[in-house]
Amino acid sequence: MKVRIKFRKYGVLKFIGHLDVMRFFQKMMRRAEIPIAFTGGYSPHMIMSFASPLGIGLTSDGEYVDIELTEPIDSETVVRRMNAMTAEGIEILSFRQISEEKKATGMAIVAAADYLVSVRKGTMPDHWKEQFTEFLSQKEIRIVKQTKRSEQEVDIRPWIYQAEIRGEQIYLHLAAGSVQNLKPDLVMEAFCKFCGIQEETVVFSYHRLEMYAESSENKAESAERFVTLESLGEEICSEKC
Length: 241
Prior knowledge:
Blueprint: E1 2-9, H1 18-31, E2 48-50, E3 59-68, H2 75-85, E4 90-97, H3 106-109, E5 110-121, H4 128-136, E6 142-146, E7 151-155, E8 160-166, E9 169-175, H5 184-195, E10 203-214, E11 226-228, E12 234-235
Parallel strand pairs: 3-10
Antiparallel strand pairs: 1-3, 1-4, 2-3, 4-12, 5-9, 5-10, 6-7, 8-9, 10-11
């Protein structure tokens, strides 16, 4: 049985990297006595995959890890056990059964993510909100994106699915996944360059709200194009449900 765990990451644990998060979950699974499946061979390890690792320094309300179970266990019990064994900075939000297909893993299907961007240090120009509207009205937003092997100039405008100002914060709905992946800091870097803001004068903080897959029913350029990874699973109930 394959299941998807949704969790939030906050507080001081935003400063731990992805490998540390993996180790944390492995220990939590053992302590909470979750019947997680292991790989075979001489060096077995827990069958576990994260949808899209969160960068160091970012907080989130919508992180996902998929695991396999050796036997069913109801969602309410798992959430309670895991939260009893976690530390401040990681909270388990849901535990849902997902499709058994390999192509249905969070890592394979994640297609978008949304973020709230705030100013952590420094001050924005007086007319930054008007400038942000002008920034988005461009037909192209070209940046130099670094890969593991080289640098490449790309147009990121098609990867910004939605963006708007919410009070003193910026909401970004961006492409995510293995095919197209746009990090919010690249958008803000391009915006600062557009406004003539020196990088060292303003520091932003980023909070991931949710991760999404493309809807199988509606792939048009609309709000219905995406569904949350959580919505693709179902609660596991005990016989008492």
